Amino acid sequence: MDLKMNSTEVSNATSSDCSRFCLIKPQHISISVLICLTFLVGLLLNVFSLWVFTCRTQEWTSNTVLQFHLAVSDVLICPMGPFMAVYYHTANWLFGKVLCRLKIAFITFHINSSILFLTFISIQRYVAVVRFNQDSYMNRKDFVQKLCFGVWLFVLVKGTVLAAVLDTSTMDNHTLCLSIHQEKYTDFYFIVNFTVLIPGLLLSFVVSAICYTLLVRSMSRLDTSHDSGQAIKSKSCKMVAVCLTIFVVCFTPMNVLRSVGLVVKKFFPCNCGLLLNVETAYYVSWILAGANCCLDPIIYCFSCQKFTKTFRISLRKIGLRLEMSHGESS
């Protein structure tokens, strides 16, 4: 009789009543390890890329400016990796309110600026290759610098607002930070996700897909009988593949799983099994999201011959220094 009553109570429970039935569970250690490794590799690659841009690239173009700011965006999020890894494994935010707000702000900075810079890179690449003989603002370095300043101003305001509104909360003896289990923010998360985040991602993806489709179509008409034509076509097509991979593989799963989790939390709060499975899948998607920091430097190599040349020369110098150090120690 008691079991029937408890079952009826759960089925008729509201969202707040269901919170006590959905236990907050730590994630597997492998998720935390992979997140740390991904962000560590991304940090090393992008710090090296920034060094190449600032110390080894003498003449900057509009394309170089966009790539530099994309690398800065990737570097910003990488130090958050260890904090996120500990949080996912313990299901407990141990670092206080200030670091929680910083985490929210830096995640907002990175995700939004990366998507915007990738979109502008696609537009600039289309203009530079398909409309190379026409004057365009996207080929003007001063205009692109102002555009990048506008992007940072936009994400700074957005990240600051979110960090000011959101905070830590305690549930079931767990301190939570930017978690789907924070019921007081469920409606806020839901509204922001479906009115700002998802439309922004879809618009950026559509613009990039159109630009790259037109780019590939233009590349198909190039004369590939000469080595230069074949090289341009090969590099452009490879860059297309990398950029679309970043959108589809790195950003899409995270946004889709977050949306599914919010729908489950808001409309099916008592379906704890589904909610916890979606939450785990969402944390796994952060590994893919972090992988964009590792893939972005590949774009620099495909889209900028100077970067590729400088990158190779720098690696040779580092290898030579390591070889000399090894010889001296021997």
TrEMBL record:
One of its GO terms (cellular component) is plasma membrane. It is a multi-pass membrane protein. Keywords: Cell membrane, G-protein coupled receptor, Membrane, Receptor, Transducer, Transmembrane, Transmembrane helix. It holds the Pfam family 7tm_1. InterPro entries: GPCR_Rhodpsn, GPCR_Rhodpsn_7TM. Residues 45-300 form the G-protein coupled receptors family 1 profile domain. Its main location: membrane. One of its GO terms (molecular function) is G protein-coupled receptor activity. The keyword Ribosomal protein does not apply. It is found in: Cell membrane. The chain crosses the membrane at residues 29-53, 65-84, 104-127, 147-166, 188-215, 236-257, 283-302. This is G-protein coupled receptors family 1 profile domain-containing protein.
